[in-house]
């Protein structure tokens, strides 16, 4: 169960939201309401991808990431420029743990500047915070 303290920490930085126990899941739920969850899903998929040790599995997952998020008109296409897309196409021929790092960094910056501030201002986040404050879930109250 998410605590008020955790929810309040999310407003301190996007990093705190991502590294908290429930933050990524709740943030993804919010993004689905505004039909923009592809960026956080790509970022989280990249985090999982970096932990893959098997080269065979890495090749398979790299291709899935490419077809889901990178290729033009992908079902969950992320907003990256053409040179970045071309670099990834070259990189996934022999995928390494870092072949999506630059795209992931760009997407992180998009999220941090765009959807994260909207999340903090949203009724979704405000209601969650308010319900935890009024239910006395935690002694820490704004």
Automatic annotation (TrEMBL):
Matching InterPro entries: RGS, RGS_sf, RGS_subdom1/3, RGS_subdomain_2
SMART domains cross-referenced by the UniProt entry: RGS
Domain RGS: 13-129
Pfam families assigned to the protein according to its UniProt record, in alphabetical order: RGS
UniProt superkingdom: Eukaryota
Stated name of the protein: RGS13 protein
Gene source species: Calonectris borealis (Cory's shearwater)
